[in-house]
């Protein structure tokens, strides 16, 4: 089960496993309530997500688009080497900013 919490005005999502198609419905249900009201700023902390499949990459882009339409955005942090390669190869990494750790990602909203 993913961990979702608020840190100030930012929603932090920390999946507890790979971002794969079979996990996305649960993750989406958990994060959706935090996107209502106000400008949605989201950090996805990938510390415990060793892999992202095609559906996961698309979900990240869709979430970023949803947030951007309302004046917010999505940031990624603690991205592992394999996930970095996947983000680079698919160009998703060019659309969503990445940070080395949660503190840096949260600071990017200041």
Automatic annotation (TrEMBL):
One of its GO terms (molecular function) is anti-sigma factor antagonist activity. SUPFAM superfamilies: SpoIIaa-like. Residues 1-109 form the STAS domain. It comes from the Bacteria. Pfam families: STAS (PF01740). This is STAS domain protein. It comes from Stieleria marina.
